[in-house]
């Protein structure tokens, strides 16, 4: 819960420990949207851990499962053209790859890099994989949280 709370705060999703713990122990409907988001992050992390137990590799399908759990929908690889990332002034600061085929190719290359047994320091490899995942920006929403979950899952490999 604390990891989910801290990671979500990066995306300005703020809740309190009280709200989180009440929602976990109480059998009631959760009204607070931020608390719901944090709990989805926690669920996605556990989903990833369970999938790694069954198959200890990080894959595109695992990423899709994680983002679907976070977003509570059936979203998949981004296929809308013209995606840009802008700063607070509205200036475009980055244009990620476009087209589902291109994105899937880049994710396949990332999968290979993550799962190969190379003589790269694990901390360096984690930094590179996180940067590359964020640069590919494969989903319409939920990339940051999915990317941070992937880091934690990599530590379990």
Descriptive overview:
By secondary structure, the protein is mainly alpha-helical. 61% of the residues lie in helices and 3% in strands. The chain contains seven helices and two strands; from the N terminus they run H-H-H-H-E-E-H-H-H. It has a two-stranded antiparallel ribbon with strand order 1-2. A hairpin with a 5-residue loop joins strand 1 and strand 2. The longest helix is centred in the first third of the chain and has 22 residues.
Keywords:
single chain; 157 residues; mainly alpha; two-stranded antiparallel ribbon; globular
Reconstruct the topology from this structure.
Blueprint: H1 2-9, H2 17-25, H3 33-54, H4 60-71, E1 85-86, E2 92-94, H5 100-115, H6 122-136, H7 143-156
Antiparallel strand pairs: 1-2
Helix pairs in contact: 1-3, 3-4, 3-7, 4-7, 5-6, 6-7
């Amino acid at each position: 819960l604390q990891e989910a709370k801290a990671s979500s705060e990066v995306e300005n999703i703020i809740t309190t420990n009280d709200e989180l713990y009440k929602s976990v122990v109480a059998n009631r409907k959760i009204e607070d949207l931020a608390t719901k988001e944090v709990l989805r992050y926690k669920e996605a992390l556990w989903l990833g851990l369970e999938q790694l137990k069954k198959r200890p590799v990080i894959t595109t399908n695992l990423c899709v499962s994680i983002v679907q759990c976070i977003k509570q929908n059936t979203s998949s690889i981004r296929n809308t053209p013209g995606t840009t990332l802008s700063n607070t002034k509205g200036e475009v600061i980055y244009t990620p790859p476009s087209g589902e085929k291109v994105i899937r190719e880049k994710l396949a290359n990332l999968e290979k890099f993550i799962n190969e047994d190379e003589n790269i320091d694990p901390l360096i490899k984690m930094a590179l994989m996180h940067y590359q995942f964020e640069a590919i920006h494969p989903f319409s929403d939920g990339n940051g949280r999915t990317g941070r979950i992937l880091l934690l899952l990599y530590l379990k490999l």
